[in-house]
UniProtKB/TrEMBL annotation:
Protein name (Swiss-Prot/TrEMBL): Calcium-binding protein
Source organism of the structure: Novosphingobium resinovorum
Gene3D superfamilies: EF-hand
CDD domains the record matches: EFh
Keyword Cell cycle: no
Origin superkingdom: Bacteria
Length: 247
């Protein structure tokens, strides 16, 4: 037998020996590809599951958190600070004359600032050209009597305002210290209102809303009441009659 014929059977055996793993690898790759397709199908299943989740998902913005309860101590502190702002002579009483003097002083400061904003050449007088230039800067706001003052807060209030920041609930609860409030809160009818009288007057609304008398006003207690005396539901309440039940 020639050498070529002797080698041929040996090569055949080697090929037969190596073929199964190679074939298995090839099929494994196919299985892997099919498995990948299976995983892809799983991804589609994930989409189906995602479709059944709550609306607004997918990493969107978090829903707004409900406001924290208002503590009576915080309420009283804001009222106290408002009183101390008005009690300019620090005698423990705010009189009508004292309040009016404070308002007039603040008005004078604001008027001076507004005048300086128009008097471009700082000569102490306002020419027609300066006034026209200032009005032109105001744009469409110049047609409004309130906005034409240049102060976006509008007219000067005849009262001392409570410093409540952005808390709208507190702004509704605390009445600014005005001449009317001084007259109503002054229970002993002396020259003015004391801090104790003002706290008692302002606190009536807090006490009325604090139905469980725990010293806090919850979001539920702050809800306005309807004509029937029941508290009105805010956004997110139950739907109208006959509609689907709330989720």
């Amino acid at each position: 037998m020639s050498p070529a014929r002797k080698i041929t059977p040996l090569l055949a055996v080697l090929l037969m020996t190596l073929a199964p793993p190679a074939l298995a690898q090839g099929m494994g790759g196919m299985d892997g590809g099919m498995g990948g397709g299976g995983m892809g199908g799983g991804g589609m299943g994930g989409d189906d599951m995602g479709g059944g989740g709550p609306p607004g998902g997918g990493g969107g913005a978090r829903p707004p958190q409900p406001p924290k309860p208002i503590k009576r101590a915080r309420f009283d502190k804001i009222v106290t600070d408002m009183f101390r702002d008005a009690d300019t002579n620090r005698d423990g009483t705010v009189t009508l004359d004292e309040l009016h003097a404070l308002v007039e002083a603040r008005r004078a400061v604001i008027i001076k600032e507004r005048f300086a904003a128009i008097d471009a050449d700082r000569n102490g007088s306002i020419s027609m050209a300066e006034f026209s230039a200032w009005q032109s800067k105001m744009g469409s706001a110049a047609t409004s009597d309130d906005a034409a003052t240049g102060d976006r807060s509008g007219p000067i209030v005849e009262a001392v305002m409570p410093d409540v920041g952005e808390d709208r609930a507190l702004a509704r609860l605390i009445e600014p210290l005005s001449g009317t409030v001084i007259a109503r809160a002054n229970t002993n009818y002396d020259a003015g209102v004391s801090l104790e009288e003002l706290l008692a007057y302002e606190g009536k609304l807090f006490d009325t809303a604090d139905t469980d008398h725990d010293g806090y006003l919850s979001m539920e207690e702050l809800r306005p009441k309807g004509k029937d005396g029941e508290r009105m539901r805010g956004p997110g309440g139950p739907g109208p009659m006959g509609g689907p039940p709330p989720r």
